[in-house]
């Protein structure tokens, strides 16, 4: 089995095993809390309904009103600032879900916009990641040269350490800012930054969604957008070093196999003409000193061909006869001249046509 197939099967098995482990861990961590919260919410719902004498239908209407009015707490979502924030979440595939189009034209434009925008964003962030890695390598070489190190080149381990430090610094700084503006705990802010920069985008915690921030705090909006774009560029630099190396392994192996096949093909020697054997098979390739020795040719059986056979030895009994490989069955053999006894020839009635001339230099050993 090829190395690429083994690697693919191993990745599939490892991924599904990782999914099973994750499901078991999340079940153990979150299922009890989910049941407790559900019981508490049901008790609060019963208390509210008894206190205000609300029917079940009216309570469902109130729930719908509260859910639909939640996005409007941040201000108008579809003015230019909010629309730019939404377009950023689409292009970066974060997809918080805090605001979604409600019209048919808006949904259609979102799909068309994503088809073009997502590949464009991926290429842009990948290019920025490459530039960040190149700048990091230049800085690493300068630092090593100033410290008079023996090895001044930037290794992959050095780049990974630098990118990891930049990613940690970005998440830590962004968490401090969001903790101040949003009133979250620092741990929740770190969680939000990680979910955002990895483009998971659950939507349980979304910045710019309270106190009319989209219209009243332009500096905060600008900071949030810059944080998303710059942070994704740093993450792209990390992916360029770690993930893409594993992704391109199959391509590198395929190219290596192709190069080996071409090298082996270049070393192979073929017959230039077709040589017919006594049993009707045709030997195809190129005659030379490095022929493939699989099927020997008996020098007693001969046939005459019209192809140039000057490289065949004239006295084959006193020289080593080369061996050839039977590569295909007879196809077009009109260039071969028949060698049959005269009594087996059935000549047509009429004027006798003289047979073609046979030259001794065109005898091929069979």
From TrEMBL:
Source superkingdom: Eukaryota
Biological processes per GO annotation: stabilization of membrane potential
InterPro entries: 2pore_dom_K_chnl, 2pore_dom_K_chnl_TASK, K_chnl_dom
GO annotations of cellular component type: plasma membrane
Similarity comment: family membership: Belongs to the two pore domain potassium channel (TC 1.A.1.8) family.
UniProtKB keywords: Ion channel, Ion transport, Membrane, Potassium, Potassium channel, Potassium transport, Transmembrane, Transmembrane helix, Transport
Methyltransferase found in the keyword field: no
Subcellular localization: Membrane
GO molecular function: outward rectifier potassium channel activity; potassium ion leak channel activity
Pfam families, A to Z: Ion_trans_2 (PF07885)
Protein name: Potassium channel domain-containing protein
Stretches that traverse the bilayer: 6-29, 78-96, 108-125, 157-177, 189-208, 220-247
Topology of this chain in the membrane: Multi-pass membrane protein
Domain Potassium channel: 75-132, 168-243
């Amino acid at each position: 089995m090829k190395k690429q197939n083994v690697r693919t099967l191993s990745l599939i098995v490892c991924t599904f095993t990782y999914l099973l482990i994750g499901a078991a861990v999340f079940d153990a961590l979150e299922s009890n809390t989910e049941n407790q919260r559900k019981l508490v919410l049901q008790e609060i719902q019963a208390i509210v309904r008894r206190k205000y004498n609300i029917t079940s239908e009216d309570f469902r209407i109130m729930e719908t009103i509260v859910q639909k009015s939640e996005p409007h707490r941040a201000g108008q979502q579809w003015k230019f600032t909010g629309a730019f924030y939404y377009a950023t979440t689409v292009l970066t595939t974060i997809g918080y879900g805090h605001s979604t189009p409600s019209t048919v034209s808006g949904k259609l434009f979102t799909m068309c916009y994503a088809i073009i925008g997502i590949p464009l964003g991926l290429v842009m962030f990948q290019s920025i990641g490459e530039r960040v890695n190149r700048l990091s390598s230049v800085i690493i070489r300068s630092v090593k040269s100033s410290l008079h190190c023996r090895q001044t080149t930037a290794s992959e381990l050095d780049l990974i350490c630098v990118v990891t430090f930049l990613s940690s610094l970005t998440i830590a700084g962004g968490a401090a800012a969001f903790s101040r503006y949003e009133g979250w705990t620092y741990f929740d802010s770190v969680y939000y930054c990680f979910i955002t920069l990895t483009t998971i985008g659950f939507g349980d915690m979304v910045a710019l969604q309270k106190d009319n921030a989209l219209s009243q705090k332009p500096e905060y909006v600008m900071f949030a957008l810059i944080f998303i774009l710059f942070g994704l560029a740093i993450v792209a630099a990390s992916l360029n070093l770690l993930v893409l190396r594993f992704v391109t392994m199959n391509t590198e192996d395929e190219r290596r196999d192709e190069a080996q096949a071409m090298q082996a093909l270049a070393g192979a020697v073929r017959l230039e003409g077709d040589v017919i054997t006594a049993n009707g098979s045709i030997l195809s390739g190129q005659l030379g000193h490095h022929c493939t020795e699989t099927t020997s040719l008996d020098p007693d059986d001969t046939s005459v061909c019209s192809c140039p056979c000057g490289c065949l030895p004239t006295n084959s009994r006193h020289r080593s006869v080369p061996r050839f490989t039977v590569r295909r069955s007879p196809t077009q053999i009109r260039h071969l001249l028949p060698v049959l006894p005269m009594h087996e020839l059935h000549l047509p009635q009429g004027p006798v046509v003289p047979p073609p001339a046979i030259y001794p230099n065109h005898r091929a050993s069979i």
